[in-house]
Hints:
By secondary structure, this protein is an alpha+beta fold. It is built from 15 helices and 40 strands. Strands 1, 2, 3, 4, 5, 6, 7, 8, 9 and 10 form a ten-stranded antiparallel β-sheet that branches. A ten-stranded mixed β-sheet has the order 13-16-15-14-17-12-11-20-23-22, with no helix packed on it. The N and C termini lie far apart (about 65 Å). About 40% of the residues are buried. The chain binds zinc ion. Zinc ion (ZN) binds near residues 550, 554, 573 and 576.
Amino acid sequence: MILPLAAWAAGTTAADTARAVRDAGLDLDQCYRVRDLNLYKEDIKLYFNDGYLIFSKPVAGERIAAVFTADVEGGDGEVLLLPPQRGERQSLARFTGSPNLDEHFTRALLVFTADSGRALLESIEKGSGHKAPEMAPLLAEQWTPVVSNILDSFAPRIAGDLLTPTRTDGFLLAALAGKTLGNFDVIYDPAASEQIVVGQLMERNQRAVYDVWTRFRARRFRTGSAAPPEPLFSLTQFRIEASLDENLRLQAVTRATLTVGSQPLRVFAFEVSRAEQVTAARIDGAPAELLINESARSRALRADENEAFLLATPDFLAPGSVHRVEFDHQGALITSPGNGVYFVGARSNWYPRSGSAFADYDLVFRYPRRLTLVTPGDIVKDTIDGDWRITERRTPVPIRVAGFNLGDYEKISTTAGGLTVDVFGNRNLDPALQPPPKTTTITSVIPTGPRTPPRQEVMTVIQHVPPPDPLARLNAVAADVSASFQYFSGLFGPPPLKTLTVSPIPGTFGQGFPGLVYLSTLSYLDPSERPAETRNATLQTFFSDLMVAHEVAHQWWGNVVMPKSYQDEWLPEALAHYSALLWLEKKKGLNALEDVMANFQADLLQTGENGQTVESAGPISWGYRLEASQNSESYRVITYEKGAWILHMLRKRLGKERFLKVLAELRRRCEFRAAGTADLLDLVKKSLPPGVSADSMDTFFDNWVYSTGIPTLRVKYSVKGKAPSWKISGTVEQSSVDDNFSVDIPVEIQFAKGAAQTVWVRTSSDPVPFSATLKQPPVRVYIPAGVNVLATRK
Length: 794
Ligand SMILES: [Zn+2]
């Protein structure tokens, strides 16, 4: 369909368009009495059975909003939606009490671009409605403020679509007033990796949270009849010139090469940290328009700390054309807790970005010479200019994101096997790690006279505790980084960046960027000098062993192999965590790994106030959606600890050698591109040991990745026969999980001498029989629950 957009689009600014969207208002000439009017958008079915519908005024020739109200005798609207996967049905059921959405509504606010508005009008013309001008003034009066409000929320998004006229598959938001579920949204967004979202904006602990009831790929993307949405443009060849003043405020110019995709474009979406302001943008040297304005609702939907903004050019840029884009930006990203220790707040989003495709970086920093600034890449230039130091670095290979860190550092450098490790530590103590003073009370007895009783005096003594050495483990950390870097290089192939820089970050977390690791200041302290609340065995292992190797492993998982969508975000985290456990096993033996796995299982089985386990909050594939869960630990424990368990169980099913080959192959196959859970499953299926069916791996992923549940297992058995042939037969019973839960679990049969024998049994809601022929009588028959399989034993 040809729209009168060419005239509109040329010369109209993005701001004008956004303003026109905000001011659109309702159209008194476009009010209809509707009956049996339907709107189908992929899996979304909206029925406007009986009521009134009024459209917005057109913007750029298109209707962009409508209001439906069932405020008539017998008026009714209904929405139907059936999530395609079991996990998504479970999710919907958790929020609404039903695995499918079938809700009647009294009011619908619709916001749309491209096809949905046209489909509604065509259907009305074909007889499912007739004009009702008498109702128009009343409806307009009632609904104009609400429509303005919602259009204001989505103005940049709608303006972006209107200025991209080749986009035929439009956005659709239906904000519904449900009869039993209250207000909720049904959204179709063709630009997202999972296009359909049903959710509700809620307030929890005085904070706006967006509860995602269900989210999945729309039918035509699921079935493969449409290709996944392609990026509209790509960025390569970054050059960032950044300067940090005496207060460490950042002022920067970021330049990148922008290549337009297969459609002409004049609007480009970017993101940057909310701590920054983008003050100007240029395309090929000419000023470009910036549209920065995002609503709480669209932010909540994206659930990150970035500001989304649009850059608009006066004319369309041709498909495939290459341009130079430039941004001026600034912000206070660096804070200091004191004592000459610094914290970089915006680590991944300190410069404008769009997506996370691999790019080359040229990074120039001007900063106070008293400090050391670290960033990935080879040094091109390093000069001193008075009190300032200017360092330029260039990355030898494309990377996903460029980070930086700075401080007053001590440094240890080691090179071995072609890999260099530079480990930096703060010379001064992070003030948060200074132990509180010790208070002791001293009671002294003071004689007062021959006939009076002695007086007691109580004195409180405040004793200063000497500060821990902030560099106590600098050598140990450097040795561990270097050795684990080499170990992983042997397992997964050499890393693309041969130099790894490790630097401290105040807080209890770490982060692994290409060529640059941020390591908690706690990891540098002697375990005996860490804060009291971290001095238990689990956290000591975490800060001394796991965190370092986890962040080093991100050089592969996350920086070479990236997650395809939020559903795959668990994959790099679980792979990094399990890699760290493999390194722990290498250093301290299998028992050390098994101790950690047992702790992880205990964390997953902890119950919250509602009596539900942490693990039951949702499948690991929900990614960020787990953060909205009642239990604040769910996201972390499920992503990292259940993730490690999933990989551990795969290892037990494949055998260690095959399992490690799968990981090496995953890196090889997915190098410099996104990998999904499906890639892992595919490789696993190609590496199965004899006797393990591909179908059992589908079952494995369906239950452990796309669903929830930790079973309680019980084995019963009897042995018959005599030497040299014995027969064991028994059953495995499963409880604590729903009836659909079914996984292969090992039954271990141990003998007085020789290797144990393993029988794999697929569990079910009914007891499952098993049997095996043995050469000698067993001494022990058991399920290695909590050791080789995520389960408890009854
Ligand atoms: Zn991580």
